[in-house]
Amino acid sequence: MNHRKTCCGRDFTLVVAGQIISLFGNAILRFALPLYLLKETGSSALFGTVTALALLPMILLSLLGGVLADRVNKRNIMAGLDFLTAFIILVFYVLVGRAPVIPLFIVTLMLLYGISGTYQPAVQASIPALVPKERVLPASAIVNQIGSLASFIGPVIGGMLYGFRGIGSILKVSILCFLMSAVMELFIVIPFHKRSEEKTVICIVKEDIKESTRFLKEKKPVFIRICFIIAGFNLFLSSMITIGIPVIIVERLSMADQLLGITQGLLAVGGIIGGLFTAAFEKMLNPGKAYTLLLLCAFCACMMGVGMLLPEQTHFLKYLILSGAGMLVMIFSTMFSIQMLAVVQTQTPAHLIGKVIACIMAFIMCAQPAGQMLYGILFEKMSKGTPFIMIGTGAVSFLIALYAKNILRELGGNGCNE
Questions:
Q1: What is the pLDDT along the chain (418 residues), one digit of tens a residue?
Q2: Quick check: helix, strand or coil at residue 371?
Q3: CA angle, 33 then 37 then 42, to 5°
Q4: Which of 2, 8, 248, 263 has the fewest CB atoms within 10 Å around its CB?
């Protein structure tokens, strides 16, 4: 079919365009809502706890998303969830300032993250259906770049809007983005063959999850070990950055909201650069040696901590070190993630891709809520020990990377074209 001949086919282009708009709306929300909560409460522990609670439905519903991605038209999933997200933000817009802050944020963030968990497996599972097998890696890199681009533009514009116009302007723009994306996605044509099922949805979900976990255990146990590696990084390095950067910039360094937006944008630039490098050097990249990227991430975390040891009067230099090292972490971690995702996509049977990706995503995300709660408490209780929290995180990440060295050897050569 024509839409599978190139990464630039009409339907793949529509998926990418919809992602640009939808993820931009998502990015400004993910910047503004946690910042609003942190500034309203002033508690990093509460900030970490609410953020962690919001991730729980994302973990659970990502499994449902994988089942749906293999059994329901992926276009309908993406469009329907974007319409639902626009409605939820509209309700939040009406209630903000009228309802209690903490319960409102917990419920809203749980709904938004839950939708995201259901949405992403459909996007990832649509890639092999829209591009030929040999183009899955660059197509995945393009989709990843789109997310990073939206994550770059979103916080920068979100920081400006939040700083000058408040939370209301963020909510209005995000509602418009999700509506536009949903309408655009209605015109996507993704090859889909409906299965005839007589079983209940619960039975289907159970059997699909069993089928995917059986595949991982019996056919690809190395995928499970890679999941433990990524989960370890989520528990420590990812959680430290997610909680630590807003807390340090807003509370420790007393920087403006716009500068936090720029830092979040730089993190996304790192994701873009990582995606570009992955696409440009795909022939040279070897998943079996990707542990070196994790070692570089660990080194950058230590750089952040050392930068925080500088004298008190060097706040802006600390800000630059924090932002620059964070961007480097995103470059290396993105290159690692894309390679691992491409391996899964190309070494998994087509009818299992959505479910397997969903199981993997759910597993690796399980560690993040615990990590975010941990770092929320650490940054609040050890306000003067911030540098040592970050250096300690780098040391633990270094040990995880060394463990990954032996595991990733099982992937052998390229690993993406088998």
A1: 444 444 556 777 787 777 788 878 887 887 888 888 888 888 888 888 888 887 788 777 766 766 676 677 778 888 888 899 999 999 999 998 788 888 888 888 888 888 877 777 777 777 777 777 667 767 777 776 676 677 677 788 878 887 777 788 888 888 998 998 888 888 887 766 665 555 655 676 677 778 888 888 888 888 888 889 999 998 999 999 989 999 999 888 888 888 888 898 888 788 888 888 888 887 788 888 889 999 999 999 999 999 999 987 789 999 999 999 999 999 999 899 888 888 887 788 877 776 787 778 778 888 888 898 999 999 988 878 899 999 999 999 999 999 998 888 777 544 444 4
A2: helix
A3: 150
A4: 2
Name the nearest CA neighbour of 130 among 5, 22, 18, 19: 5
Q: How far apart are CA 28 and CA 391, in angstroms?
A: 30
Q: Residue 310, by phi and psi: left (phi above 0), alpha (psi -120 to 50) or beta?
A: beta
DSSP state of 310: S
- Token pair, residue 131, equals 């591009």
Distances (CA, A) of 279 to 285, 296, 415: 10, 20, 15
3-class DSSP state of 256: coil
The backbone torsions φ and ψ at residue 351, rounded to the nearest 5 degrees and listed phi first, read -75, -5
3-class SS letters over 148-162: HHHHHHHHHHHHHHH
H helices within 200-238, ranges in order?
201-218, 221-233
Instruction: Extract the tokens encoding 165.
Output: 């116009």
**What token pair was written down for 143?**
């989709």
| CA–CA distances in Å: residue 119 to residues 76, 115, 126 | 10, 6, 11
| CA torsion through residues 327, 328, 332, 335, sign | positive
In 166-200, which residue ranges form alpha helices assigned H by DSSP?
A: 167-185
If you count them, how many residues does the chain have? Answer: 418
Angle CA(342)–CA(343)–CA(348) in degrees, nearest 5? Answer: 105
Name the token pair of 366: 């399980």
Tokens 């040891």 -> residue: 309
Write the CA distances from 412 to 146, 219, 283, 293, integer angstroms. Answer: 29, 16, 14, 17
Q: Which residue type sits at 15? A: V
- Complete domains list, the chain, with CATH: 2-186+200-411 (1.20.1250.20)
